[in-house]
Amino acid sequence: MTKPYKTGLALSGGAARGMAHLGAVKALYEKDIRPDCISGTSIGAIAGAFIADGYDPEELLDIFLGKRMVSYLGISFGKVGLFKMSGLESALDKHLKAKKFEDLKIPLYVASTNLNSGKVEYFNEGDLIEKIIASASIPGVFTPVKINNALYADGGILDNLPVHPLKSKCKKIIGVHVNYTGPEDEIGSAMSIVERSFHLSIGARIAEIANECDLFIEPEELQNYRLMDISSGREMFDIGYEKTKKLLKERKSGHRKV
Asked: Is 231 annotated in the active site?
C-alpha cells in the first residue's frame, strides 16, 4: 500500500515535560526535517495541534510559558473529576487559528481513551479543541469530555506515544517520548511515588513502540522534572533540543537519513 506522507511525528504525553517536544521540533526544523503528518497524546496533542497550525517552536514556548499551568484549570467539584480545563479551552480557542482538524496546515491525529468502550481512539476530524481537551483529561484529576454519549479521557492510559495512526500513512516516523523511566535511586514523597507509578504504567509498551520509529527521541534528563514543573519549561525545551541535535548528528555520521 502506498504511504501518502514522507515523515510522521508522534508526540507523547507528559504534562509540563512536553516543553521538550518544542525543543525537539526546533532541532528537526533546523535540519529541514518537517512533519507531513502529526499524532499526539495529552500535551503531545496540544503541542501537535499548534505545530500543525503553523506555529514556530520558540513562539509556541512563549505562549506556553506566558501563563502559569494552574491558571488553565478551573475547579469542578463534580463526581467525575476535581478539575475542569475551562482555562485551557479558552487559551486554545484564543491562540489556535484552526478550529477544526480539517483547517490545520498539517494533518493531525489526537489519541484519547474511550472510558465506556475501554479502547483508544484517534480523532482526526471535526471539532479540534474538544478532542484535544479529551486527550489531556487525566482520570480522577480532570473532568472527562463527553463526545457522542461516551466519556473520553487522557490518551496516555492506552497509548502514550501514538505511532499507530501514522504507520500506514508515513514512510518514516519520528517519535518523541518525554517520560523516561530509567532507574531512580530516591523516591522520597507520596507525590513522587504517584508520579513514578503513573510513568511506569503508561510507559509499559514504550520500548516496543520505539522499535517502530525510524528516529526515537527520549531525553533521559527529563526524569528529574515534575509533571507540573512549568517554571522549568525553558530548561526542558533546551533538553529536547540538545538531545535531538545529538541524535541527528549521530545518524548523519552513520550515513543514515530520517
From this structure: no
Q: pTM above the 0.70 mark?
A: yes
CA–CA distance, 101 with 92 (Å, rounded to integer) = 13
pLDDT at res. 15: 84
For β-strands 81-84 and 140-142, DSSP reports them as: parallel
Instruction: Identify the residue whose cell numbers are 540538545.
Output: 242
Q: Which three cell numbers stand for residue 69?
A: 499551568
CB 35 within 8 A of CB 174: yes
| Sequence letter at residue 196 | R
Catalytic pick from 39, 53, 112, 154?
154
Residue in 53, 12, 16, 60 with CA at minimum distance from that of residue 174: 12
- Residue 42 is a catalytic residue: yes
Catalytic residue chosen out of the listed positions 42, 112, 135, 137: 42
